[in-house]
UniProtKB/TrEMBL annotation:
The keyword Transport applies. Belongs to the ATPase protein 8 family. It comes from Nesospiza acunhae. One of its GO terms (molecular function) is proton transmembrane transporter activity. One of its GO terms (cellular component) is proton-transporting ATP synthase complex. The chain crosses the membrane at residues 6-24. The gene is ATP8. This is ATP synthase complex subunit 8. InterPro entries: ATP8_metazoa, ATPase_protein_8. Keywords: ATP synthesis, CF(0), Hydrogen ion transport, Ion transport, Membrane, Mitochondrion, Transmembrane, Transmembrane helix, Transport. It is found in: Mitochondrion membrane. It is a single-pass membrane protein.
Length: 55
């Protein structure tokens, strides 16, 4: 069965992972996040129940 032969596919997978790990990933990690993390706890909104006219 030819799909069990790892000879051509292993090299392609290894090359793509090395390319991703060494070239693409450091470029992606240099971008600044649009929403930086905050140390403040999230504010809970003060909600009031809605008075439905039919209840």
């Amino acid at each position: 069965m030819p799909q069990l032969n790892p000879n051509p596919w292993f090299f392609i997978m290894l090359t793509s992972w090395i390319t991703f790990s060494l070239i693409i990933q450091p470029k992606l990690l240099t971008f600044v996040s649009a929403n930086p993390l905050s140390s403040k706890p999230p504010a809970t909104p003060n909600t009031t129940p809605w008075a439905w006219p039919w209840t």
